[in-house]
Amino acid sequence: MKKIKILQGNCIDKIKELDDNSIDCVVSSPPYFGLRDYGTGKWEGGKEDCPHKRLTKISKNTTTGHANMFNHGDVVGDAIYKDICPKCGAKRIDEQFGLEKTYQDYLANTVKVFETFKPKLKDTATIWWNVGDSYHNYRPTNNKQGLYRNPDYPKQSIAGNRQDLAKYSLKRNQRYQEIKEKDLMMIPNRVAIALQEAGWYIRSEIIWHKPNPMPESVRDRPTSCHEKIWLITKNKKYYYDHEAIKEPITDTTAIRLLQKNIDNQKGSLRGNGGMKSNGNMKAMGRKKFDKNIWQNL
Domains in the chain, please, with CATH? Predict the structure, then answer.
């Protein structure tokens, strides 16, 4: 039996340890842009006792998605300070994937990862890349209360007891001229386009449907219940076993296939709105086609 070897560390460095032309398949769900801090950062300057994060997001009374982070003292989303801690002025030193200052940097790092493992892939290899999306939550302030050192900084909500009030605004996010406040940033699509422009083949957009998603405290849009998985290859021809992932047919289709004259049936002209050009539509076989919508069981 072959031993399994786990390489732990910066993926850019660890990928280089692999043999060229040795990988059949890559399956990854890398950190999504600006949504999670995995605690790899170090802080330079500032105060040693400062948490360097917005603690109001992990209150015991929190009812949003931040609540499940409370027990291990972590934060997500706009509670993360990516660059400078507004409480003590400490500077973050971190190469963490997903906490780039801009989404453009995130796209560039994604392409860099792909270009790093490209020579390690076999010509027939496939990549299955799961990417979630982010919302642009920049909020400009008019500084009416004079709480912010610079009125161009975005507004940050502050706890009722004002425990998180800094001398200037707690910066929620980088401001982008091309993306409006509250816009869905379309990160998965931007990732796919960036890789496509870098020469990769985007073969399929797979919807990962989650029937029981995490609740969201929003009232002006539907709750998100899916993520995207991209099937990506470096060549036009690659290994793909579609028979292995076909779904079972329904009982009614199975009964139809048991008809004695199934091979002699003429089929239907209704396919493609009556415009089917390659013959009548007949019973397709013992299994359904593999589909690009996957669902949690």
Answer: 1-33+102-137+179-240 (3.40.50.150), 41-94+139-172 (no CATH), 249-291 (no CATH)
